[in-house]
Amino acid sequence: MSMVRKLMIAAIAVITMLPVTDATATSSRIKDIASLQSGRENQLIGYGLVVGLQGTGDSLRSSPFTDQSLRAMLQNLGISTQGGQSSAKNIAAVMVTANLPSFASPGSRIDVNVSSLGDATSLRGGTLIMTSLTGADGQIYAVAQGSVIVSGFNAQGAAATLTEGVTTAGRVPSGAIIERELPSKFKDSVNLVLQLRNPDFSTSVRIADVVNAYARRTFGDPIAEARDSQEVVVQKPRSADLTRLMGDIENLVVQTDAPARVVINERTGTIVIGADVRVARVAVSYGTLTVQVTETPQVIQPEPFSRGETAVQPQTDIMAEKTGGPIAVIDGPDLKTLVAGLNNIGVKPDGIISILQAIKSAGALQAELVLQ
Q1: Separation between Cα atoms, residue 359 and residue 111, nearest integer Å
Q2: Could you tell me the pTM of the whole model?
Q3: Domain total of the chain
């Protein structure tokens, strides 16, 4: 049996730099790049029980909180729980989470996520019983109940076990009914605060300019002000309806801008290059040195009828291979040219990652390099 070890040594040379061109912007609707501050979601959480499992629930001895919850539930239903400890395996304690949408009204339904809290092996086939969902203020805003949908599954035999996906977490579609609305009212607001999902001063100023241009045509006065790189405040005109005003503003088209970034994940070899990334003209040479060590031990047998012993004679083969392409010139005035230049070098993603890092060190990469 042989063992192969490889040592990769990369050598990169980067020289010669030239100036680059300016970046270009793209067009997007305001609703796609910003959200309303008063229209944010609120997180809800609750503790409940899932019943109806096929022997895959919590061990009541290992999860005492499940046994306590079961007894409390039965007592609330008027059933006496005095006696020995139950050994049922068809019940599991779970945490229930959900997001309360903005401007949600009582009676509407939302989806909930269910996650096992004890040592249950699967929630497949279970039913979440009535669970109260509270907000950060401790008030109950929704009540959840319904069948748990689990995408994963597991199968177990005497000598093997097969698991596909996650079986201890699931979802109840439209499983919660909203019982209480949020205290704030959209109609009571005196202004609209737009929050950019990707903060940028240029985009914030452009949003304010586009909204003011619309306001001058409609109301005669500007109403928007860019507070910083993330917030744009829109004052409500006296004669305007706030809902209709937001409906008109969110469909306005804005020229967006964002910093140029190159995102690299060295673990998976993923490279994401933004459209505004520019690279000055550089000359790149990339080469690798591969050292291969192969161990092939030989077994030596003694002569027949001799008193010798079987021995193992080591045998090692070492091979070194050095590869390297010619010096290539990369000039990236736009994304398409940059990608074509990197592909022409003929290296794999790990090599491109090393090249991009070296170009950044040489000062030729006009972008932020994000390593994950």
Answers
A1: 47
A2: 0.65
A3: 3
